[in-house]
Amino acid sequence: MGGSVSCCISPGESPKIHRRREVELDECPITTAEDVSEDTGTYLQHISDRELPDELAQESNPSDHPRASTLFLNKSQTDVREKRKSNYLNHMSPGLLTKKYSSCSTIFLDDSTVSQPNLKSTIKCVTLAIYYHIKNRDSNRSVDIFDEKKHPLSRDKVPDDYSVVDPEHKLIYRFIRTLFSSAQLTAECAIVTLVYLERLLTYAEMDICPCNWKRIVLGAILLASKVWDDQAVWNVDYCQILKEMTVEDMNEMERHFLELLQFNINVPGSVYAKYYFDLRSLADDNNLSFPLEPLSNKRAQKLEAISRLCEDKYKDLCKSTMKRSVSVDNMAGIKNSQAVLS
Question: What is the pLDDT of residues 254-271, one digit of tens each?
Answer without folding.
Answer: 999 999 999 999 999 999
